[in-house]
Amino acid sequence: MHYLKSPMNYIGNKYRLLDQIIPLLPSSERYVDLFSGGLDVAINHKATTVYCNDINYHLIEIYEAFQKIEYDELVARIEFTIKEYGLSKTNSVAYKNFRDYYNNSKKDPLDLYILMNYGFNYQLRFNSKHEFNNSFGKNRSSFNESIKARLLPFISRIKSYHFSSLDFRNFDFSILKKGDLIYCDPPYTISIGSYNDGKRGFNGWQTQDDLALIEILDDLSRHGIRFALSNVLSHKGKVNDVLIDWSSKYTVHELNSNYNNSSYHLTEKSETKEVLITNE
Ligand SMILES: C[S@@+](CC[C@H](N)C(=O)[O-])C[C@H]1O[C@@H](n2cnc3c(N)ncnc32)[C@H](O)[C@@H]1O
Predict the structure, then answer these.
(1) Ligand 1 pocket, 187 CB below 6 A?
(2) Ligand 1: residue whose CA is nearest its atom 27
(3) How many CB atoms lie under 10 A from the CB of residue 237?
(4) Which terminal residue of the chain has fewer beta carbons within 10 Å of its beta carbon, N or C?
(5) How many whole angstroms separate alpha carbon 235 and alpha carbon 188?
């Protein structure tokens, strides 16, 4: 099955697990993606009304800017800026000049999207003053033809989405009705990603956050709302006991995260128990 791939190249995205996750998500009237990140899951799930939330408001502002612009205009704008600043895979001076311009400007989300495409691993990284501080993605990152091709279906798919940039605790769960689906792909307590190490202008993710989230999911479940939670139960010798205990009430689908067939990756990945926990 062919899945849409987000043009965000988001760290921690679920694209490679979609063929295992999507069939486990029941279609629903309303769908909430509470930690939506690069939207790889959201854009591939069928629902009438889609709500996407992520605490990273820089990211959400990019999606809201995409909603207001047509594809041709967006690409023209991106290509104009690339030319204006001389952005390329090799021009580190152009990257730094554009990053300085962005940090000292009114911070247009479309400029941030362009900047992100030339940064190391396409990361949206900020310092504590919320200045973009990712380093140059030398010889690796650029707004290439593949990303350009992914933008078209992406921006048309997200046009009708409802976006918010709230801490998950503050999301308005009252919009969910019986039979609706909420998907959660939070940062993982036992494997730190660059979006949850607490050093990027956002707080880190800890056991207390897992506890708050599972309390919300228990409550929603009691009200007939379906949930699916992505997580890892063990990783490189570390174990998430809180989640293991809690998940015994629900269904735990073990996912095969050995995406790469090379034996090196097989050994490394097999130390990780990646799961989708659902209440059906
Ligand atoms: C694993 S990523 C989600 C990846 C996404 N499923 C995808 O396919 O691209 C986790 C996301 O949770 C967000 N996040 C971290 N803490 C949060 C919080 N307290 N409330 C809401 N979102 C949060 C991060 O900004 C990050 O984008």
Answers:
(1) yes
(2) 37
(3) 7
(4) N
(5) 10
Ligand 1 atom closest to residue 14's alpha carbon, by position in its atom list: 8
Give per-residue pLDDT as tens, 101-133: 999 999 999 999 999 999 999 999 999 888 999
The CATH code of domain 63-154 reads 1.10.1020.10
CB of 54 closer than 6 A to ligand 1?
yes
The per-residue pLDDT for range 12-44, each reduced to its tens digit, is 999 999 999 999 998 899 999 999 999 999 999
The ranges assigned to domains in the chain are 15-55+165-278, 63-154
State the DSSP code for 20.
H
Q: What CATH number does domain 15-55+165-278 carry, 3.40.50.150, 3.90.1010.10, 1.20.1440.230, 3.40.50.1390?
A: 3.40.50.150
Please work out whether the CB of residue 55 comes within 6 Å of at least one atom of ligand 1. yes
Question: With 0-12 CB in 10 A as exposed, 13-18 as middle and 19+ as buried, what is 256?
Answer: exposed
Does pTM top 0.90 for this prediction? yes
